[in-house]
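Thread title: Can someone regenerate the structure for this chain?

I was given the following input by a collaborator and told the matching structure tokens would be attached. They weren't. Posting the sequence so someone can regenerate them.
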Amino acid sequence: MKKQTASTKKRRLFASPKPKRNLNPKATAQTINFAVIGDSHVGYGNSASIFRNLLSKAVGSGNKRFVIFGGDNTQAGANHGNNANAYYKDFKDTVTSTLGSIPYKASIGNWEASTQSLFTQYLGAVEGQMNFPGTQGKVKYVWLNCALGLFTPGSINILKNLDDQHFYIIDFHWPLKVSGITVDPSHVLSAAETAKFFAAIPTKVRDKVLAIFTHHGHLFYRKLTNIYPGYTNTKFFVCGCSGDYKCKPSGDRGYYNATLTINGTALNVDAFKVAVT
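Best answer:
Regenerated them for you:
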């Protein structure tokens, strides 16, 4: 065995200590940009062209990671659904060619309710949940079916089984009846249906619902606090129009630029309308 010299021992005794590893580094906020688009009504009038232009603008800036389509994506129920297949194909082709690899999900609207099998064929399930892109499973995206102004039993069951291990962003077609809403009452869910929705979500999950996006009203509306008793922090949005059916180009036609911010245990959703004339 090699004998240690005194100088070697001295160097070891007085060697500079290694810097301690920071076990609690300061969290860096993560921002995920997404777009919310509703009521494109492809198949009606000049909707296909308007939607194509609007969608291109929506994903052309801000590094979008996800796109929500909120129902009445097509005018599939017109003329007893005779042209539904062509309308769905037109919508899907536009989405595929414009979004490329950006993931998306579409909810079902009242103009699609009578052609649900085609909706499923082209746009997937009418209700369900998935990981919100970019959140590593921390946030779930939930889409529901209330196409005819009533939540389906399957949609209510999804809400009842939400857990408090995740945060949630929820989308469906008809707006809820919240206090102060400016949408035409004929395009808003009844008070009873609204109450059924909120009651279905377990109490321990209610502060985990970050935002609810709805459509159908053909205008923009948002309520950012106290949308319903027990939901003090949930934000509620109605999205405008993105087509040619009952859409007013002077501000009600457009989409939401939205952001999901994750900063440690603090999560927040904001959405701002972008009008497209």
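Helices lie at 6-13, 47-59, 84-99, 116-123, 153-160, 191-200.
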